[in-house]
C-alpha cells in the first residue's frame, strides 16, 4: 500500500510520494468544482465524481464553484472529491493507498493545546469517504493518518538550529493562519495557535468581487491567477474587458494584501521568545515582508520558502523517514 502525503488546502491539493526508485514526486491540482455533472464534449476529458449521493465535476472556468475558503471544507464531501481528483491527476495508477493528511492547528488542537480527538476522527472518516469516479477507476483510501499543519513545513529549518534557538513558524494558508513556536534541535513544541479567520483567500475574494464589479462576471480561478501575477500589470489588464479598470483591480489587490498583512502581524504579538522566523504556506509571499518588518528580525534569522506550495507535504514525507 503506497503512502501518499496530502496537503488538502482550500485553494488546491498538494501531493507527495516516492516512486519505485525512491525519488520524491509531487503534484498540484486546483479546487474548482461545481455541484453538477459536466457533459462530455468529445474534445477534452471530463472529470465527474459522486460522493455521498452528491454529484461534482472539475470545472476550472465555472463561475459557480463550490466554495472551499472555510474550515468545514476540511470535513466535506467536496474535500474527499478534491483529494480523489488530485490522485487521478497524479499519474499514478488507481490503487489502495495510505492517505497522510493534515488539519489546521485550530482544528487539530483543543483549547488546552491537546489533540482534538473528535476532529481528528472526523477528518479520518471524511477523507476515507468512498468517491465514485464516473467512467473511471477510483483510488481506494484504506488508511488515513492525520497530523497538524505548519510544523512539518519547517522541519528542515528546525534541523539547522541549536538547543538555544527557537523557531517561530508562520504558516499562512488559504483559509487559516497557523503559528507554532518550536524549540530548536529537539523540535519540541513550545506553543501553538491557529486562527481560522485569517487566510490568503481573503485577497482572492476581494479581487473576485472587484472583477465582478468591473467585468460583470468573474471566476475564482482568474481571481487567483491575478493574485499570483500581482506584479504584472499587463497580465491583469488582459483579464479585464476594459483596460482602464486596471486601477480598480490594483486598489482591491493592494488594499486586501495590506489588510491581510496587518491581521497576520497583529496575531503574531501573542508570541515571544523566538530567535528565528520561518514564513511558509501558500500565502507566504503575500505577507513575508510585512512580517519581517514587524518582528524586526535580521535577514540571517528570517526564512521564506521558495516552494511554499509543497513545503508541508515534503516535510511530512521527511518526518516519516520513508
Number of domains: 2
How many helix segments? 10
Q: What is the chain-wise order of helices and strands?
A: EEEEEEHEHHEEHEEEHHHHEHEH
State the separation between the terminal residues, measured CA to CA: 13 Å
**Low-confidence stretches at least 5 residues in length (pLDDT < 50)?**
none
Note the beta-strand portion: 25-35%
Spatial order of the strands forming the largest sheet = 3-2-1-7-9
Mean pLDDT: 89
Return Rg in Å. Answer: 20 Å
The CATH superfamily of the largest domain is known as ATPase, nucleotide binding domain
- Could you tell me the number of beta strands? 14
The computed structural class is alpha/beta
Q: Predict the CATH topology of the largest domain.
A: Nucleotidyltransferase, domain 5
As a percent range, the share of helical residues equals 25-40%
Shape: globular
Major beta sheet, specifics? 5 strands, mixed
Q: How are the SSEs placed, and which strands pair?
A:
Layout: E1 2-8, E2 12-18, E3 24-30, E4 33-34, E5 48-51, E6 54-58, H1 77-89, E7 96-103, H2 105-108, H3 117-127, E8 131-133, E9 140-148, H4 155-158, E10 166-172, E11 177-183, E12 188-195, H5 201-215, H6 220-228, H7 233-237, H8 246-268, E13 276-280, H9 284-295, E14 302-304, H10 311-320
Helix pairs in contact: 5-6, 5-8, 8-9
Amino acid at each position: 500500500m503506497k503512502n501518499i502525503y496530502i496537503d488538502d488546502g482550500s485553494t488546491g491539493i498538494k501531493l507527495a510520494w516516492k516512486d519505485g526508485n525512491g525519488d520524491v514526486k509531487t503534484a498540484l491540482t486546483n479546487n474548482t468544482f461545481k455541484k453538477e455533472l459536466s457533459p462530455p464534449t468529445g474534445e477534452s476529458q471530463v472529470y465527474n465524481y459522486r460522493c455521498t449521493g452528491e454529484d461534482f465535476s472539475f470545472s476550472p472556468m465555472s463561475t459557480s464553484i463550490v466554495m472551499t475558503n472555510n474550515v468545514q471544507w476540511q470535513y466535506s464531501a467536496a474535500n474527499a472529491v478534491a483529494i480523489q481528483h488530485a490522485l487521478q491527476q497524479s499519474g499514478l495508477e488507481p490503487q489502495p493507498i495510505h492517505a497522510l493528511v493534515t488539519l489546521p492547528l485550530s482544528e487539530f488542537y483543543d483549547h488546552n493545546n491537546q489533540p482534538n480527538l473528535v476532529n481528528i476522527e472526523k477528518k479520518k472518516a471524511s477523507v476515507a469517504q468512498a468517491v465514485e469516479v464516473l467512467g473511471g477507476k477510483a483510488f481506494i483510501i484504506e488508511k488515513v493518518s492525520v497530523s497538524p499543519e505548519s510544523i512539518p513545513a519547517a522541519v528542515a529549518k528546525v534541523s539547522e538550529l541549536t538547543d538555544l534557538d527557537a523557531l517561530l513558524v508562520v504558516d499562512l494558508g488559504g483559509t487559516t493562519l497557523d503559528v507554532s513556536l518550536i524549540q530548536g534541535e529537539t523540535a519540541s513544541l513550545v506553543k501553538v495557535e491557529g486562527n481560522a479567520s485569517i487566510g490568503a483567500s481573503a485577497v482572492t475574494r476581494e479581487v473576485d468581487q472587484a472583477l465582478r464589479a468591473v467585468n460583470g462576471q468573474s471566476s475564482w480561478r482568474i481571481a487567483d491567477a491575478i493574485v499570483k501575477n500581482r506584479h504584472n500589470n499587463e497580465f491583469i489588464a488582459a483579464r479585464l474587458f476594459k483596460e482602464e479598470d486596471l486601477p480598480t483591480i490594483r486598489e482591491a489587490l493592494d488594499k486586501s494584501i495590506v489588510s491581510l498583512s496587518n491581521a497576520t502581524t497583529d496575531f503574531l504579538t501573542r508570541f515571544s521568545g523566538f530567535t528565528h522566523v520561518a514564513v511558509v504556506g501558500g500565502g507566504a509571499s503575500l505577507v513575508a515582508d510585512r512580517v519581517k518588518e514587524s518582528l524586526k528580525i535580521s535577514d540571517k534569522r528570517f526564512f521564506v520558502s521558495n516552494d511554499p506550495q509543497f513545503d508541508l507535504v515534503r516535510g511530512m514525507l521527511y518526518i516519516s523517514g520513508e
